[in-house]
């Protein structure tokens, strides 16, 4: 009798994007593109497209808890990505469940504002995010705007990125990667800060070049879910970030050739398989 094959199991806990470019939809596309079996817990429904988020429907916390139980009681997960959570109550529910199931590989994308400018995390939820979920995360992945909001000052250069990454480690995550996609100029380097068991902090930079395109909807969701996928496949953190950086760069470059909608189009998640 042959032994059954096993999937690399990845779970996304995030909001749904009806336009398909970000959120749950982007995460599942990324998981599939990178050879993982993707599962989802939907925390909110959004009516959105390439132009705007026009409405948000919050999912009840008891139903969010039921979704997590349904997935983790039966299937389990090798790694979990967290995206839009929206309220303190949702954050507390998700944190309680992840502690219960002792999930170790958690990638947290602190989604605050959509590409079109809609607020996706209530102001009163920021402290709950820092208190409840940052200490559980293997990695948090704020962009420049999110990192600026978290540390309370504007970050506009690589020195500020490193300072913010070090500061955010004090909230308890094992690592922080501040994304430089919104840096002015040609560079979009990302700064990874990791604290080891002895308390020492190491800094690693992941270089990249800006790609001129309006098709950048869902880049943050895609990058964080790519890190999650590579962690699920057994990569260590630095390798997972390196591979995820390559994947999102290629997805943006391939997506730049397309036209979809009237605003910020999506990246091309399946650039390696679509012909």
Summarize the structure.
By secondary structure, the protein is α/β, with parallel strands linked by helices. The chain has eight helices and nine strands.
Termini Cα gap:
38 Å
Looking across the biggest beta sheet, what order are the strands in? 3-2-1-4-5-6
The CATH architecture can be named as 3-Layer(aba) Sandwich
Number of strands: 9
What would you call the shape? Answer: globular
Question: How large is the count of helical segments?
Answer: 8
The multimeric state of the shown protein is single chain
Determine the strand fraction and express it as a percent band. Answer: 15-25%
User: CATH H level: which superfamily?
Assistant: Ribokinase
Tell me the radius of gyration. Answer: 17 Å
Largest β-sheet summary:
6 strands, mixed
Structural class: alpha/beta
CATH class category? Alpha Beta
Q: Which regions have little confidence, pLDDT < 50, spanning 5+ residues?
A: none
CATH topology: UDP-N-acetylmuramoyl-L-alanine:D-glutamate ligase
Number of domains: 1
* Helix share, percent: 25-40%
Sequence of secondary-structure elements: EHEEHEHEHEHHEEEHH
The average pLDDT value, as a whole number, equals 92
């Amino acid at each position: 009798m042959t032994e059954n094959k096993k999937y690399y199991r990845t779970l996304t806990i995030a909001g749904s994007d009806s336009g398909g470019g970000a959120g749950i939809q982007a995460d599942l596309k990324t998981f599939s593109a990178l050879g993982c079996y993707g599962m989802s817990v939907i925390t909110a429904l959004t009516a959105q497209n390439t132009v705007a988020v026009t409405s948000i429907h919050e999912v009840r916390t008891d139903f969010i808890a039921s979704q997590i139980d349904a997935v983790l009681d039966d299937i389990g997960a090798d790694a979990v990505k967290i995206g839009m959570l929206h309220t303190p109550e949702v954050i507390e529910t998700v944190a309680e469940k992840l502690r219960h199931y002792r999930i170790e590989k958690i990638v947290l994308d602190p989604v605050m504002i959509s590409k079109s400018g809609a607020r996706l995390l209530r102001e009163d939820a920021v402290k709950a995010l820092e208190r409840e979920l940052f200490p559980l995360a293997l990695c948090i992945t704020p962009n420049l705007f999110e990192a600026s909001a978290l540390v309370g000052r504007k970050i506009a250069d690589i020195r500020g990125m490193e300072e913010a990454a070090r500061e955010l480690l004090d909230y308890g995550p094992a690592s922080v990667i501040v994304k430089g996609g919104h840096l002015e100029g040609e560079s979009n380097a990302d700064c990874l800060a990791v604290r080891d068991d002895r308390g020492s902090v190491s800094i690693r930079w992941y270089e990249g070049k800006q790609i001129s395109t309006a098709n950048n909807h869902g880049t943050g969701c895609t990058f964080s879910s790519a890190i999650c996928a590579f962690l699920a496949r057994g990569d260590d953190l630095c390798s997972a970030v390196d591979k995820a950086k390559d994947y999102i760069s290629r997805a943006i470059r391939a997506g730049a050739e397309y036209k979809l909608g009237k605003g910020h189009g999506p990246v091309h998640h399946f650039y390696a398989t679509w012909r």
